[in-house]
Design brief:
By secondary structure, the protein is mainly α. The chain is built from five helices and no strands. The chain folds into two domains: 61 residues, no CATH class; 75 residues.
Amino acid sequence: MNEKIIEQENTQIQSNNIKAQNIEIKDERIEMQKMKIKSNAYTILSNLILISVLIQKFFFNTSNEQYMIEFICFIIASAYIIIKKITLGIDMKSTEQKTTTKLLLDSLLFSLVATIILAFLSGEDSTILLVYFIVFMAITFIGSYLISYFTKKKQNEIIAELDKDV
C-alpha cells in the first residue's frame, strides 16, 4: 500500500517537474530594462510627434487638417497615460506633497513659457497673447489640481484597503 502511494507521489513530482521545465523563467531586472526602453521610446516618439505638429503649424503654415491625426494621436496617448496613472494612484511627478501654491507656480511658469514660444512663432499682438496666457494658466492650473486631487484620492483608497487587510 505504501509503495503505491510513494509511486503516485513520484509520478506527481515528475509531472510537476515537466510542467516547470516548459515555463519560461523571466529575470525581473531584464523585464524592467525592457519596460524602461519601451517607455523611453514612447517619450521620444511623442516628443517627435509634438515637434512635427509645431513645425507643420508654425514653419510650413499647413492647414489644420494636415497635422490633425498626429495631434489627436498625441492627445489620446497622453490622456491614456494620465487616466491610467490616476486610476492606479501613481503620482505624475514625485511623491512630495503638492500644495496649491506649488501648482499655481508651475502653471504660471508653464503659461509664461508657452506664451513666449507662441509669441515668437506666431507673431500675435499683445492682447491676444495675454488671452492665451490666461487661458494656458487656467487650463494648466485646473488640470494639475484635478489630477493631483484624484491621484491623492486613489492613493488614500489604496491605503485604506491595505489597512483594512492588516
